[in-house]
Amino acid sequence: MEAKTKSIKRTFGKHNGNELEYVLDVLDTEGANVKLSPFTERFESAFAECIGSRYAIAHNSGTSTLHTSLAALGVGFGDEVISPAQTVIMNSFVTLFQNAIPVYADLDPDTFNLDPKDVERKITKNTKAIIAVHMHGLCADMDPIMKVARKHGIPVIEDSAQCVLGTYKERIAGSIGDIASFSFETKKHLSTGEGGMVVTNSEEYATRIRRMAFNGYKTLQAGHGLRQVLPDEFQDPDYKRHDTLGLNYRMNEITAAIGLAQLERVRTVVSRRQEVARLFLEALDGCDWIIPQYVPEGYENSYWTFAARYQGDEKYGISWKDFYRRLKENGGDGFYGGLSVAYEEIVMVDLPFLNRYPESMRDEIKSKLHYEKGICPIAEKLQPQMMQFKTNYRNLDEAKKQAQLLKKTIQLVDKG
Length: 416
Ligand SMILES: Cc1ncc(COP(=O)(O)O)c(C=O)c1O
Description:
- By secondary structure, the protein is an alpha/beta fold.
- The chain folds into two domains: 19-265, Aspartate Aminotransferase, domain 2 (3-Layer(aba) Sandwich); 268-339 and 378-415, Aspartate Aminotransferase, domain 1.
- Helices cover 39% and strands 14% of the residues.
- It contains 17 helices and 14 strands.
- The strands form three sheets. Strands 1-9-8-5-4-2-3 form a seven-stranded mixed sheet, sandwiched between helices. It has a four-stranded antiparallel sheet with strand order 10-12-14-13.
- The radius of gyration is 23 Å and the shape is globular.
- The N and C termini lie far apart (65 Å).
- 45% of the residues are buried.
- The chain binds pyridoxal-5'-phosphate (PLP).
């Protein structure tokens, strides 16, 4: 049967750059070359250059990147890791998988990002790492976070899964902390289906991360992944391969081929989201009860989502859900609610994983994982008010229509 190769020609498709060509290159490559991972190496070096870091290590997700990052920092039993109260649960999960304790810092009510003062308040002698998450596409306030971290000798991981090409005082997201993590999951700025990248300037961290992400092979180095060992060497029964505890978190060549092609168009992809966000900002012009995420002077928001704070219940007695229903009835796409405050998630309340710990320690661990209501009051207040509008419209006419529908729904509410 004759093979059919479909080209990707969708006008608004996300993968209509060099993705298909590169994937075909991979499929067309003899096994020996695939083993050398040329696309993974190209993607890594292009990504490192994009962020301005010395090393980039490709992973299979933006969760595994966080896991290897924490492990590289030596986070382990009895340690504490600070992350924002409102973020994805993965920040807590990787901490728990390292047998460490998640500690939550509150948010700034305007930027919806970490409050550096609360980070400092939450530091104890056990704090081993801080994960600063750049929520919705906007950088966290990194200068004071780094200052407090340096003062206490604590390394900082930037979780930049939602922030690609976002900038903070002329520095690009991912270039400020000790290690930074990115995700290429389907809905992210750059998508490869699943995937992630760690960047760092530290050779030591990069080597540890690479080895942990690839089953602990001793030949892996900070700056490169698979390198063929001479057959004479490894065809020897005395040859020892593994010097590090590791898992298989590596990116495959097909994913890297797509990632490289995505990265070639990163500016276009990010600008499109920023353009969509501008449309939503215009729609909110003059509205004092839906307050968009505040972008301080000197920041560029990469707008993974267009986040805003809903205050229509305070102003008009119209609940979040009621406003959502009205927008949908007017033909709008709707919007997402804010992620649960991490310590209010079912898993963090029920602690079904406690049996990971020896029985004699469970009570102590349980008390450390008990989070009282009120420990992060801003996040708790903000969470039910959050609105997240999608920005990944590739057809701008559709985005304009959605922004108009939002404006119309606001005007109808204002008119009573
Ligand atoms: C801030 C943040 N961190 C980490 C992740 C995890 O990334 P992934 O889904 O690629 O594992 C995500 C994505 O959902 C995210 O938004």
